[in-house]
Amino acid sequence: MEIAEMLDEIKREAQKDAKLREEFLQTRKEENPLSAFCTKCRELGYPVYEMDVITAGEEFYAAMKRSTNGGGENSPMLEAEDDFYELFFTGL
Questions:
Q1: Angle at 17 between CA 13 and CA 22, to 5 degrees
Q2: What is the pLDDT of residue 46?
Q3: Which of 7, 18, 41, 54 has the fewest beta carbons closer than 10 A?
């Protein structure tokens, strides 16, 4: 399972479970929120690591750029589509 799929699955679980949702929201208050977030994901059995989240977002953004107008300079700027971490909390 890819990172995006795992994050979607985790988000669905957290949307159904208020306690789990609150635990994820609390990770944002930690000194290193992304690390705390990934630790929580791993506690739930999902192998999510910081670089996986960052790389997945960058790869997604690069694929979007390549698919738009040949990926040239006229490609539209994407807003936050490359930040899977923030997208997770937006949907939560």
A1: 105
A2: 97
A3: 18
